[in-house]
Design a protein that fits this description.
There is one protein chain. By secondary structure, the protein is mostly helical. The protein is 72% helix and 0% strand. It is built from 8 helices and no strands. The chain has helices at residues 3-16, 22-44, 52-68, 80-106, 121-139, 143-154, 159-166, 170-187. It is globular and about 60 Å long.
Length: 193
Amino acid sequence: MDEARQQDLALVRAVVEGEAGAFGRLRAQLEQPIARSLDRLLVQWREAVVHREDLLQGLELHLVRDDFAVLRTFRGDAQLKTWIRAVATRHFYAEVKRIAAHDKEERGEVPDEQPHPGASPEDAAVREDLRRRVRTVIETLDDRDRALVGLVFEQGSNATAAAQVLGLKPSAVRMRKKRLLERLQKALKGVWP
């Protein structure tokens, strides 16, 4: 592990152990990459009325919740800025999606998850089995790949836009997308053509 990653790991450990001023140092170091991730996401997502500061405060709560459960998962395998960008993107995306769903509900629009009217119980059971299998695969993904799923498959971002949010090259996004589709295909083998 290089020196920068060792320093990142030491900073995270200091935060988790409650060292005075450590969270402030972490916040100062990560403020810029987190803000860039949020700004890119907000440019792409125009459906929901969101407040930037609320999302940033929500991320801070997410990081400290349950005795720093999220921060405890940092192992130093990647740079802290890269890791936090993926965590932040996933958190921001989930929040914006939640807010958009709430806005739709308030406007009286039909939520996306309702079954198709007239669908048979068998169709509903097959759909639920497919959803369960897809969720199982998604739960095994790392933070960056989960963010990729949200950006590309749920939000409809192209490879270039997703690459900007994730801090990757578009070719890397396309390769990750291909691998994800292969994993899903294996998980759905025999259920979906």
